[in-house]
Amino acid sequence: MTNLLTNDLNHILAHTKTLWEELRGQRIFITGGTGFFGCWLLESLIWANDQLDLKASAVVLTRNPDSFRQKAPHLANHPAIQFHSGDVRSFEFPEGEFSHIIHAATDASSLVHQENRLFVLDTTVEGTRRVLDFAKTCGTQKLLLTSSGAVYGKQPPDISYIPESYQGAPDVSSPNSVYGEGKRLAELLSVVYAKEYGIESKIARCFAFVGPYLPLDESFAIGNFIKDILEEKTIHIKGDGTPYRSYLYASDLMIWLWTILFKGESCRPYNVGSNVEINIKDTSLAVAQIAGKPNSVTIAQEPVTGQKTQRYVPDTQRALQELGLKSTVDLPTGIKKTLAWYQQRLTKTDDDRGD
């Protein structure tokens, strides 16, 4: 798998090379290190570590180290990575100092939100509190919280790109707001700890993404489309395909997250995502076209005349103006890379089985 990621990892390093020096000889603690964000964080960390001879190391919190070893053995077996078993809400603090922490543990699955909302809220809020309590005891200088665009609640249709200054919020009368409201509380906790204990708390409000390691069976529309194509199924859109999203490719995501950790202003949230909007219908058509199956999309409903369009698209001017961050990989290229990675993965699985 790593061979297909080499160009991406070199791309990340080229855009972050001057930032890594503060990690030289240091230890970093990462939660959520086995998910989509986590795998990319580890890929890019060990790439920089090896290329720059940083002699840094990472301790990764996970509930199931053995499962991750099967998923990504080249990461799990790297000498700079160690695992610490535990639940983010109650883990025992590992010994020693950690100069940096990335708190990326989250569950953005819509299914989980609907079936176990209190678990989502507890994991988001209690987990953040536990990580912050650890940060204040282990010498942490900088902490990155991966928050979400869900903190804004429903994006008003008259706002094309939602800025960090928007003061909207999730609808607390809806139990499905647990994820967004939990992230709001997580942000608040990180700000309180920054003021009380002097930790530099960096906040990344993440939107939608595409790339290798993206889960294909959760609430990410583009992941579902890619899954259907890989399984040679027709993409079925249940709605009318009009809601707008935008997708930042994983290598850009890493450039943004590492830059925010190292250079972002404490307690100042940054939207993380692409500002190139595309609706769900066109996204599905793009996936099908790039995969060479342009007739593999059906849309259940016709758009309703006069109906306001749903949007989930960030304003990224703050990240651009303050940190020089922008999207460098366009969506068609991101889809191609993701498809190629998963196709290679499926081929390897078949070869291992002797099929």
List the helices and strands and how they pair.
Elements: H1 2-16, E1 27-31, H2 36-52, E2 57-62, H3 65-71, H4 73-76, E3 81-85, E4 100-103, H5 110-115, H6 117-135, E5 142-148, H7 178-197, E6 200-206, E7 209-210, H8 221-230, E8 235-237, E9 244-245, E10 248-249, H9 250-263, E11 270-272, E12 278-279, H10 280-290, E13 297-299, H11 317-323, H12 331-353
Parallel strand pairs: 1-2, 1-4, 2-3, 4-5, 5-6, 6-11, 7-10, 8-13
Antiparallel strand pairs: 9-12
Helix pairs in contact: 1-2, 1-9, 6-7, 8-10
Overview of the structural elements:
Helices cover 43% and strands 14% of the residues. With 355 residues, it is of the alpha/beta class. Strand 1, helix 2 (36-52) and strand 2 form a beta-alpha-beta unit. Helix 1 (2-16) packs across helix 2 and helix 1 packs parallel to helix 9 (250-263). The longest helix has 23 residues, at 331-353. 45% of the residues are buried.
Summary of the model, kept short:
This protein has 355 residues and is of the alpha/beta class.
